[in-house]
Amino acid sequence: MPVPSDGYSSSGGYITNKEQLRNEDGSGNETVKFYNQSHRVATYVNDTLVAYQLVQAMDSTDQDTTFRVDMKFTKGSPNAKVFPFSERKEYHNYYLGHMSVASERTTIVNNVIKSGVYTNTDVIYTHSPSGFRHLIVARSGAPTGDFEMTFTGQSSLSVDGSGKLVIATSIGNITFTKAKAYTMNNTTGVLTLLGWQPSYSISGNAVSFTSFGSWSGTLVLEFGEAVQSSSASVLENVDWSTMFGAGGNDQFKDVVCNDDNDVFAFGETNNGNLPDNVGEQFGAWAGNTDVVIVKFNDGCEANFMTYYGGSGNDYARGGEIDVNDGELYVVGTTASSNLNFDTSIPMDDDELNGSQDGFYAKFSSNGLIVFHTYVGGSGQDVCTGVSHAFFPGQNLNLIYYVGHTNNGSGWPALVNQANSVNMPYRDGVDGFIIKRSGGAEEVVWSTFFGSDEDDWITDVDLMRGSPVFVGITGEETYSSVDGTLPTDGLFPKAHGSNWNDVFFDSEIPSVNYNYFVGYFGDDGSQVNQFFDQFRWSTYIAPSNDGLFTAKASVFVDSDGFSAEDIGDAFITGQVPIPDEGNGEIDYPFIENGWHQAEPGGGASDAFFMKFRMPGQIYTMTRSTLFGGDADEWGGGFAIDPNDNVYMCGQAKINDVQDEVDWCVAPTDGKFPMCDLNGLLYTETNIVGQNQRAFVCAFKNNGEMRWSTEYGDGDANAGNAMTANSEKVWMVGYSNQNWTDEEFDDTVGSTDYFRIFEDLELAGVGQEATIARFDIPLILGIDETMAQNDISALVYPNPTSGSITLAFQNMDNNVERTLRLVNALGQVVLEMKTQNQKAVEIDMRSFADGLYSLQIVTDETVSSVGVVKE
Q1: Side-by-side strand order, sheet with 430-437
Q2: Do residues 583 and 490 touch, judged by C-beta distance below 8 A?
Q3: How far apart (Å, rounded) are the C-alpha atoms in residues 846 and 73?
Q4: Torsion 750-752-755-759 (CA) sign
Q5: Which of 82, 205, 220 is nearest to 151 (CA)?
Q6: What is the radius of gyration, based on Cα positions, of the chain?
Q7: In sequence order, what DSSP letters do the residues of 10-54 get, joined into one string?
Q8: H or E element, residue 511
Q9: What does the alpha-carbon distance between residue 5 and residue 722 come to, in Å, rounded to a whole number?
Q10: Could you say which of 330, 471, 501, 515 has the lowest number of CB atoms within 10 Å?
Q11: What angle do CA 55, 57, 58 make, to 5 degrees?
Q12: Statement: residue 138 has pLDDT above 90
C-alpha cells in the first residue's frame, strides 16, 4: 500500500509494546501493540481500538488526574490487525522485572497501519511532535458512506463552529481538526488537497463524515489532534512565521532543510543581545557585524544558535547542508583580521589579506565549528555561494564555492588537475570557483572566470557533481574561440547547440551589464573527482547596471549522474525595464505554464528562467517576467522532490491584481496574485509604495498555484527558500512588521515565536525573519482535475491469478521498468519491457493483499493499485 509522504509529520513515531506497559495488577500488557506517551494526549493502539489518554496534575477542585476515551472504526472490519511500517533508527531498551523477556532494541516506527478496515480502505496512525494524526486511505470502490468512528468514555461529543470535533472529558477536551480530503499520488505518496472538504456528523456516540464530493484514484482523509493558531484568522497554509533578532540589524540570507523538517538559517547580526530562548548558543558576539546560524526543528523550536566572526564586519552570503551527516557549510565575507577566534580549529589560510576577504567555514550538525579559512588575496574578495554533493557509490564528497575579487595578487596558486582547466585573473572584478574533495576536503581545483571588464559570480549549484554558476558581466563581446577559456580579455564563450543568444541591446542604452550562466562539467562518464572542463557559458538577460540588490540565484534539479540525465537549472534576479515600462525589453521569453510577457513597470521586474541540460545540450524551456508597476527582484528558489517550484523576493507594490484576475499573468502593471484552490493565506493590503516580500508557487507543469505579497508591513524581503516534500521555508528580513503565526500556542509550548511588539524596540533596526508553509495546502487542486495520470490499463483487477498490463497512448519504443511493490514497500517483482503493447504478470505466487504497480520511464513515473485475492 502506498503511504502518504506529506500532509503530516511522523517524526514522533510509535513505540512497539513488548510488555513494558503494565496492567493494573502489575502484569505485562499484551493487548496494546503500539503507543506514544510524549504529548498532552497519549495514544495506545491495538487491533480493536485506539485509546486516547489525558493526564493532569492534582487539582483541589478536580480530583481526576487521568481520563481515557476509546475509539473504534465500526461498520467495516473493526478488528483488522495493525502492523508497523517504516522502522526508525532509534530504539528503546527495556529491562523491567514484570516482563517475561527483557526487550532489547524495542523498535520505534513512523506509522502504524490497520489494513482492510473497509473494502479497499486502510487506516494509518501517526504521532508527530504536534500530536496524533489518523489517515483513512481509500481506493476506488471504497464505501465512504460507511466510514464511522464510535467513541466510549467521553463526557460528550460535539462539532464546534469551526467544524472541529470536540471530545469532552472531566479534565479537558480532546479536539480533532476538521477533516481534510486529499488525493494521493500512488507512486510518490504526495498529497494534493481537494476542492471540497468533508464535515463531521454525530449520531449518539458515532461520528461519520458527510459532504463528500467526487474523487478518483486514491482518497486520503486526514484528521487528528488540533494545533491551535495564535492569530484571530487561521492562516491555512502558513504553519509558522516569526521574527528573529533583538533590535540591531539582523537578517537571514540563506536557508537549508532536511527530510526531518529541521531548517538551518544563515545570516548576520550587529547585536550581541540576540534572543535567549534558544537551546544552545555557541561562540560569542565579537563586535560590529557577525555571522549567525540558527537551527529550528520540526516543532519550530530554536535548538541552537552559533555566532561566527571577529572584530570587523562579517557577513554570510550562502549556506548548504550535507544531508547525509547534517554538516553545514557557510560562505561570506569578512573584514576581521582575528577571524580565527578558536585557535584549536585549523585554517588553510589564517591571515586576512587586503581590507576584505571571503571566508569558507564548515560546522557540525550541532552548530560547532569544524573547519574554516580566509579566501582571497590583496584586494576585496567575497564568497557568494556554496554547494555540496555526495556520491555514495564512489564515497565521493564534492564542495564548490564561488565569489568575486577585484585583485588577483596575493592569492594561492591556482590548483589544476590533468582533466581540468583554469584561467588566470584578467582585470577589474573577476569571478572565482573553488572545489574541495576527498577525505580531507582539500582544494583540488580553483580558477578565476571573467574578462577584462567587471565580472561577478553570485551563486552556484551542482548538476551531476559539476558546478552551474550565474553572475553579471560588463563585457559586451564574446571571445572568438568557442569552448575554450579565452586569453584575449573577452567574455568566455561556450554555446550549447540550442542556446547562444546575445544581449546588450542598443535600444536600452542604460544597460551596460548582462547576466550570464556557465557550467564546468565532466565528459558524461561517471562523476570524477578531478574533471572540470569548460562546457557552457552564455549571456542570458540584461542586468541593472551591475548594481544588484540581491544576488542572481541558481537552483539545479538533477535526476542522475550520466551524460544523458536530465537536469533543470532555474535562475532568478532582476532585469531593467526601460523608460519606466514604456520601451521594449530585450528579454528571452519562452512560454511554458504561467507566463508574464508584459513588463510591470518601475525600473525593474523579477524574472524566472529555466534551462534543461541533458548531456551537452542546453535548452531554455521557460522564461518569464514577474512583477507589477514598481521595482521587484527575485531572491531565491526552492524545488521540492516532486519538481514543484517556489520563488521569493521583494516587491515595491502600488496595487495588486483584482481577485477575478488572480492566477493569470497581469498586463496592467498590477502585482501578480493567486490562490487557485481558494484556501490559502494571501495579503492584499497596500500601504503606500511599500517594500514587501513576495512568495509564489508553481506546479511542476508550470501552472501557478499561489502568489502573494508577504510581511504585513514596510521593508520586508524574501532572500532565500528551501523545501522538502512536506514543507517550504522562506527567510529574509523586516523593518518592524512581519506576518505573525505561532506554530503552537498551547500551554507549555516551546516553539520559537516573536512578534515586533514583544521586542519593545520601536523604530530600531531590522529583524531577521522566517516563515514555514504547508506544501499540500499550497498545491491543492479541484476535484474536477485529473487525479491519476496512469497511461496503462490493468485487468482483471482484483485478480487471483495473472494480470495483463495494456499500454494506452504510449510509445511502444520506450523502454519501461515495471515494479510491483507490496504493502510493506518491498519490491517483489521488477522487469523491463520494450516494443510490447501488453505484458502479462503472474501473481499466483504472491501473498493476497494490495500492491502498487509502478511504470517507470526516463521521463515519467506512473502507478496503479492492484489487488491480489
Answers
A1: 381-391, 396-405, 430-437, 442-449
A2: no
A3: 29
A4: positive
A5: 205
A6: 28
A7: -SS-EEEPSS-SB-TTSPBP-S--EEE-SSSEEEEE-SS-EEEEE
A8: none
A9: 17
A10: 501
A11: 120
A12: yes
Distance in angstroms (rounded) separating the CA atoms of residues 454 and 475: 7
What Cα–Cα distance (Å) separates residue 848 from each residue in 139, 187, 219, 313?
17, 20, 22, 66
Task: Please state, in angstroms and as integers, the Cα–Cα distance from residue 689 to each residue in 92, 555, 575, 630, 735, following that order.
Answer: 57, 30, 20, 8, 15
From the list 215, 300, 224, the residue with the least C-alpha distance to 774 is 300
Question: What secondary structure, in 3-state letters, does 794-838 show?
Answer: EECCCECCEEEEEECCCCCCCCEEEEEECCCCCEEEEEEECCCCE
DSSP label of 758: H
pTM for this prediction: 0.68
> Which grid coordinates are listed for 141?
470502490
- Residue 432 Cα distances to 326, 426, 545, angstroms: 27, 11, 20
Whether residue 1 has pLDDT greater than 70: no
The C-alpha cell that represents 12 in the structure block: 514522533
Q: Tell me the C-alpha distance between 695 and 719, whole Å.
A: 10
- Report residue 831 as a C-alpha cell: 522487469
Give dist(CA 172, CA 406) in Å, integer. 66
Quick one: what percent of the chain has pLDDT higher than 90?
41
Q: Let me know: does 227 contact 130? Beta carbons within 8 Å.
A: yes
Q: Using CB atoms within 10 A of its CB, is residue 829 exposed (0-12), middle (13-18) or buried (19+)? A: middle
- Beta strands (DSSP E) in 490-581 are 491-493, 513-521, 533-543, 553-558, 567-576
Tally of CB atoms within 10 A around 506: 7
- Distance, in Å, from the CA atom of 427 to the CA atom of 10, rounded to the nearest integer, reads 54
Cα 724 to chain centroid distance, Å, stands at 3
**Contact of 613 with 621, CB cutoff 8 Å:** no
Residue 566 — φ and ψ, nearest 5°? -90, 130
Per-residue pLDDT of 724-782, as tens digits, reads 988 999 999 998 788 888 887 665 667 888 876 655 554 567 889 999 998 888 886 43
| Grid coordinates belonging to 604 | 525593474
Q: What are the residues facing 604 on neighbouring strands? A: 576
Grid cell for residue 867: 489487488
Q: Which helix (H) or strand (E) holds 759?
A: helix 756-759
Measured CA to CA, the distance from residue 180 to residue 221 in angstroms comes to 6
Which is it for strands 280-282 and 302-308: parallel, antiparallel or unpaired?
Answer: parallel
User: Cα 438–441–445 angle (5° rounding)?
Assistant: 85
Burial state string for 317-327 with b = 16 or more CB within 10 A and e = fewer than 16: bbbbbbeeebb
C-alpha to C-alpha distances, 75 to 144, 435, 573, nearest whole angstrom: 11, 63, 57
696 grid coordinates: 509564489
Cell (9 digits) for 822 = 507490496
Strand partners, 193: 182
CA distance 378 to 282: 31
Do the Cβ atoms of 752 and 294 come closer than 8 Å? no
Write out the three cell numbers for 383. Answer: 564568497
Identify the pLDDT of residue 65: 58
What the block records as the C-alpha cell of 721 is 527558500
Tell me if 70 sits within 8 A of 54, measured CB to CB. no
pLDDT digits (tens, 9 = 90+) for 101-116: 777 778 888 889 998 9
Number of other residues whose CB lies within 10 A of the CB of residue 270: 16
Cα(269)–Cα(168) distance, integer angstroms: 47
Q: How many residues does the chain have?
A: 869
* Nearest by Cα to 238 from 687, 750, 695: 695
- Give, in order, the Cα–Cα distances in Å from 417 to each of 408, 414, 477, 562, 571: 20, 10, 29, 21, 29
In 10 A of CB 490, how many CB atoms?
18
Q: Residue 377 in contact with residue 446, Cβ under 8 Å? A: no
Calculate the CA 169 to chain-centre distance.
39
Locate 279 and state its grid cell: 537551546
Amino acid at residue number 625: L
